[in-house]
Structures are given as C-alpha cells and as structure tokens.
Design a protein that fits this description.
Length: 297
C-alpha cells in the first residue's frame, strides 16, 4: 500500500493549504524546560452569515472558503435546496460577513433570528429541524469496500494538513471509492463538513457514490449532516456517540469508526460493506504518521 507524496498531492481537487496566510499564527510561550519557545496555532474568528437582509448565524471558523461554509450551512439546515436558488454570494473580509442572496424570499430568516454557533456544538432548534428533515429519507445503497477504506485512511493520514502542523482542528474529506477528492479543515468538525457540502452544492456534485471521512467523533450532528447531503457512508478514525449510532441506524447510514491500521468497527449499515481486503495484509501504522485521534478519543 505504498503511496508517495506526488500521488497524494495529485489526487485532491482541494487539499489543505498549510502555507495559506491568516489561518495560523506563531505565538511565544514557555516549554516544559522553562525555555522560550514558539508554537504555531490555528486562528479562530467569527463569520456572520446573512440570507438576504437577515442575520442567520455567527460561526467560529479559521476563515478559509467562507462562501462554501455559508452555502453548506444553509443547505444542511434545509434553507437551500439547490444552487439554482442562489442569486449571488458576497463575502466581506473586513466585516467578516457572507451574504447569500436568493432569487425568491424565504421564511427561514424570521424562523431562526440570530444564533451564535460555537466551534463544537449544534444549534438547538436548528438541530431539531435537521432531524425532522431526514425522517423517511432513503440513502443510496452504494457499496463500501474495505480496500477503499484502508487506502483512504493511508492517504489521508499522510496528507499535509493544518492538523499535523498546528493541531486543534478537525478535517472532513469527500471521497469517491478509494480516492480523496476534497479535504476541508476547521476548528469545528461541523464547519469542515459544511464546507464540503457547499463545494458539492456549487459544483453540482452527486452524493450517491461518495463516502465522507472525518477525523472527529461520529456524533449525532455529523450523522444528520451526512444524511442531509445524501452521502450513504460516514467513516472516522475516532469513536462514536450512542445517539449518533441510533440516528445512523434509524436513517440507514453506514457508520464506521475507530479505523486505525487494520482495525475498524461498523455499528450501522454493515450491509453495504464488501470485505475485499484481508486485514492481515494491512501493515501497521507508522508511528510518525499517526494522528492524535489514533491514540485515543
């Protein structure tokens, strides 16, 4: 399963830009030896999303791909159903705002009002709306080959990222079979998945033959967002929450966690799994390529 850096770099349509300005900064402090040291840390800044003239939500984000984040958030909350509804998107870097203008008026602005969205939690009533919207929704019966999972984990784990440079960040990767396509990072795992959703919406990318890989926990919110996007399988190196598993089973989503080396657990949707790889043939992870989440949750 040897994969070189050139193959990794050419497989992505969008990959983390570890050298991009403004996503991290160097801060001075003191190390365990009592000596002055510098540490690279990720930025966290507010981004306020408007629909037409109404302020919908303020998200804490690292600041890249604001238009995709706004589109994906609105789509995953059911406020947009297709990109054809969008008339224009305006991002103001100085004011830290994104305004999504739609061709027709909506009633979601009055329904939501202003809500502050932290880097780790869902938004109460919006979460309830998401749950209602996925009720009765059927996901495609696409297969999930274990050989794809192992290769994806091997490639993604070796991809240069802000996580490996600075930590304190989550990643979400849109994949087709064993190829990672779009790799987004953010301080909140829901922001990262919303960026992926926004890219898919703007590019008209179908979801039925895709897999979603996340570096974070498999929570109820991640399950609901994956289902809203129409993606049939969600995979993670990290662990599960019980409610996330319950929702995945109810929705019919394939949920695979703790994918580390040859090990994994599938707690929902195992009927999609095609075991075409012998786990004994999968080499152990090289310690230098392990992410923090490979050690524990």
């Amino acid at each position: 399963m040897a994969i070189d850096r050139k193959e990794i770099a050419t497989s992505y349509l969008i990959a983390p830009d570890t050298l991009a300005n403004g996503l991290t900064r160097r801060l001075s402090g003191v190390s365990q030896d009592g000596l002055e040291a510098e540490l690279r840390v990720v930025e966290e800044r507010p981004l306020t999303i408007f629909v037409n003239g109404a302020e919908i939500v303020t998200a804490m984000t690292i600041g890249d791909y604001p238009e995709f984040l706004a589109l994906g958030f609105l789509y995953n909350q059911g406020m947009l159903r297709s990109y054809s509804e969008v008339e224009r998107i305006d991002f103001d870097e100085e004011l830290e705002t994104v305004v999504v203008r739609t061709k027709a008026e909506t009633d979601f602005e009055k329904k939501l009002g202003k809500k502050i969205r932290t880097s780790g939690c869902a938004i109460g009533t919006v979460f309830g709306d998401m749950y209602e919207m996925v009720q009765g929704r059927s996901l495609p019966e696409a297969e999930v080959r274990t050989s794809w999972m192992y290769r994806l984990a091997h490639m993604i784990n070796r991809t240069p990222s802000l996580y490996l440079e600075a930590g304190a960040i989550h990643g979400t990767v849109l994949c087709r079979r064993d190829l990672p396509l779009v790799y987004m990072e953010d301080v909140g795992r829901h922001n990262a998945v919303d960026k992926v959703a926004g890219w898919m919406l703007s590019e008209g990318v179908p979801a039925g033959d895709k897999l979603l890989y996340t570096t974070g926990r498999l929570t109820s919110e991640m399950v609901l967002k994956t289902a809203m996007m129409g993606i049939p399988a969600l995979i993670s190196r990290s662990g599960f929450t019980a409610w996330g598993v319950e929702l995945a089973r109810e929705i019919g989503l394939t949920l695979i966690g703790r994918l580390r080396g040859k090990r994994y657990f599938c707690l929902s949707g195992a009927h999609r799994l095609v075991r075409d790889a012998d786990p004994d043939d999968i080499p152990p992870e090289d310690r230098k390529h392990r992410r923090k989440s490979s050690i524990g949750d």
